[in-house]
What we know:
The protein has helices spanning 2-20, 25-39, 67-74, 89-96, 105-108, 114-123, 156-178; strands spanning 44-51, 56-63, 78-79, 100-102, 127-135, 138-147. The protein has 179 residues and is α+β, with helices and mostly antiparallel strands. A six-stranded antiparallel β-sheet has the order 3-2-1-6-5-4, with helices on both faces. A hairpin with a 4-residue loop joins strand 1 (44-51) and strand 2 (56-63). Helix 1 packs antiparallel against helix 2 (25-39), helix 1 (2-20) packs parallel to helix 7 (156-178) and helix 2 runs antiparallel to helix 7 (156-178). The longest helix is centred in the C-terminal third of the chain and has 23 residues, at 156-178.
Amino acid sequence: xxxxxxxxxxxxxxxxxxxxxxxxxxxxxxxxxxxxxxxxxxxxxxxxxxxxxxxxxxxxxxxxxxxxxxxxxxxxxxxxxxxxxxxxxxxxxxxxxxxxxxxxxxxxxxxxxxxxxxxxxxxxxxxxxxxxxxxxxxxxxxxxxxxxxxxxxxxxxxxxxxxxxxxxxxxxxxxxxxx
Length: 179
């Protein structure tokens, strides 16, 4: 348990170091995703940026996905509106401002709409965490991390760590946009 706590604190320190080295949005995002890929127990990560004008999540950036999955995610556009038939699960997470832990994706998808179910099943996750990236009340992005098969399912500690990573990223993205 203590080792896990130390690993979580080290990851947060590395994320903060990564965001501290960049003032521009794209290199900042790359640095955080690279840090998560190298230093976390999460196998894959996905960041979708909020496009306020269009009311969607898009411009996906990924680490750990194969080329075909990365291409599908790059084309993904998720509505932030509460109405409609598209895959709104991630849009709801951003709107509600709460991180979500899905410890068993196969069981969880049975209660979802077709669009949400396909989105999660196509990803191949065994468990995932998703959280909003915010700063000063602005919704900036959604970050999703997952495990496909190794190290057991994500748990509450992973969700809490994801919240900390999202908070650090949110402040840094907000600052980058001012630059």
